[in-house]
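User: Predict the complex with pyridoxal-5'-phosphate.
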Amino acid sequence: MHNLETPAFIIKKEILDNSIHSLKLSLSKHFPNSILSYSLKTNSLPYILKNIKENDGYAEVVSSDEYELAKLVGFEIKNIVYNGPLKSKLTFLEAIRSRAIVNIETKQEIDWLSELPKDDVYSIGIRINIDLDILAPEDAKQNEGYSRFGFSPENDELETALQKISKYSNIKLAGLHAHRTTLSRAVKTYEEIAKYIGDLAHKHSLELEYVDIGGGFYGIMEGKPTFNDYFSAISKGLSSYFDLEHITVIVEPGNAIVASAIDFVSQVIDVKKIQDFYTITTDGSRNDLDPFYRKQNYFYSIYPDDSYSSKSPSVPLQIISGGTCLEYDKIFEIKDSRLLQVGDKILYKSVGAYTMTLSPLFIRYFPNVYLLDEDKSYSLIRKKWSATDFFDIYKTTK
Ligand SMILES: Cc1ncc(COP(=O)(O)O)c(C=O)c1O
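Assistant: Here is the predicted structure with pyridoxal-5'-phosphate placed in the model:
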């Protein structure tokens, strides 16, 4: 830890591997046929993607860029789940022809289906809109009861889409896709969503080959629902409608795989007194840790510098801040504790989900990424971006 160049993310191999294996094990316990399809957007570091691939996982992508990235990592197209509104026509058609799992999200995709060859039959899925105000109002985040995504079964949008799809003699509607991240990630909500999917399949006489439940699960965390809790509820919800022997259950975890597998370390670079408190400037930023600026608290540990002075006084209030020029780049407060000093390191735990992919290139470029191996050794798996790396991207433009 003391030799790491800060700021840096640290991938903890043992925890990452354990999350993937536990999730796979739990899936196989509850479903005769299942697919773990990792959500690339949550953290698309190629090291993680390769690990998923080596463990027979699929790549869940939501744009043509993510689709191309999955291919570069080496995922076979048939092992890609292609979702979201940002598909290009070219990659959409290529994916369907190459037998990827493609879930329709936009109306133009339904029109694009007309360009597929007529001498073969192709499978697609469609995303349904999940309105938590109807299914589980208590588990809806504020102002997020309804969802912007998928085709609504509550008006005629889904019905119309299904009718249009049924007009193509070379297209088989093979799957329904549903994804919601809810307020409390409650197990009960997954059972409700599973039943809702079953109801719809029944109502529209759909002969499904797969049901894609999306992500939104907690990872391995004390006091939180386990993978077994989630999958047993989903299995219960689905089995009233489907013979699970004849249907594949797809899950798209992101947070559950990476959140607790990644830490972030930064270093104190300045200590100043302002009014009657101290502002502690670090070389990290809240942009690295909490790109939405919503977190109330962090799991953290402090590693005093080697030259640690036990004479450092205890002070009532320290505000730990990032090193950017943003006034609001404040991270957390420490009360009634030893005054931090330059060189002290702060390790923020479990910050792997939606941090690296959402971090802007603001002031300082992408930081180092280290791998912490099972034998406790560190290796650099991504060198921090330099100004040259940034400049090189723009070289060919005017
Ligand atoms: C379609 C889809 N699948 C899966 C996920 C992953 O969700 P989580 O990271 O909460 O597991 C998301 C996240 O937004 C998503 O939009």
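The pocket of pyridoxal-5'-phosphate is lined by residues 39, 42, 60, 83, 179, 181, 214-217, 252-256, 353 (CB under 6 Å).
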